[in-house]
Amino acid sequence: MDFLNSLPARGDLVELRLGPLRAWMVCHPELVHRMLMDARTFDKGGSQYDRLRALMGDGVVTCGQEAHRRQRRLLQPDFRASRIADYTELMGEEAESACREWRAGQEIDISAAMMALMTRVTSRVLFSDSLDDTTAAQVRNSLSTIVRGLFIRTVVPVDAPFRVPTPANRRYRRAVDRLHGIIDSVIAERRRGAPRDDLLGTLLRSARDGGEDAEVTEQEVHDQLITLLLTGVEAPALCVASAFSLLAQHPDAERRLHSEVDAVLAGQPRPGLDDLSRLAYTRAAVTETLRHSPPGWLFTRVTTRETELAGCRLPQGATVLYSPYLLHHDPAWFPSPEVFLPERWLPGPEQATAASHRAMLPFATGSRKCLGNAFAMAEATVAVAAIASRWRLHHLPGPVGLPRPAVTLGPRSLPMICEPRSGTPVSTPPRTSSLTPRATVTSRAQDPRTAGDNGVDDA
Known about the structure:
alpha+beta; five-stranded mixed β-sheet; three-stranded antiparallel β-sheet; 10% strand; globular; disordered C terminus
């Protein structure tokens, strides 16, 4: 991460050597926007997506640009605003359930607990109640094993090391096979049962009996479910775990969030749909977590033709990288970037500038912007509010470990101690930190609620 943060000082586009290979890291947000808005020239590709395709198939995340529009249009209705409103109650039920059995003074692995929570939420959205507790635990354990093994597979450009039957390779292969087997079983069971109004139901209604002109093939049904399960569990779980870790290290922010949650929920165990718009500070804390510790921290694109970027001629097939972590920690866009300050996203002296909004890219932008960004923001806000209404979480004594970068960024294990909260609203503490904005590169102002923005203000 220190290496990433050193790159902007070398230029807006920095050439890297990855062994015998070359790649280019884009360090300026305007160039990143230019690249992401031109998905036909800068298509998804490189070793990252090659390995993801081997795992996920050609789903909406990994497919090429030619197939993406049809796939996105197929899935989009299940992530529109009215559907997210329907999911809010589900999210709240699962968040309340996740912490109901905690006890005062108990040590909880928050990362594992949030993985379990997001597995239940995502599986209910994808295929209702098709997973029993045992199967859900298998999914969760498989996802953890896959994520641990996937990063090294995306950065090592040869396959030979992964064909050796080492214990780690065998664990990875078993986890992949188990996850695919569970998805196949769920699809087969659903075909024998009654239709349901969930995402699997949407896919099956669109599927035909095969043939070259099939709109949705049997394989695509499988690939989309694998894709949405993988992307819908790990990243939100890491976001919420990181949020509680950061709040525990910043007591002023924690007290202000508790005050808001107590006032808005007024003794209710979880937020409802009408409460989300009133949880402004809670949402700002989630947004600031995505800035400070974005689960998606490094992505690749591949040029489909010779092109120019920042005055540099890039050949066809060139690997181009961008890092939300790098952008989010550049002091040109975010003064004192290591400081966790939810106030950046609220009206006030610390409010993020238009240039900061352009540099805030946890969900990408353009036609390949994350399909579930609004869903993820609602899910994380509900989870943080529901848990914080009942519990305060402390770190164990000693230094707090830094997030570990893998295919995603975040705490793989986060033991914390539970302290029950009274639920009595407390007054909002005075803010003790104030940031003086630094001079930044002039950037075109843009309404952050419009398409192609940073994706955190339009849920």
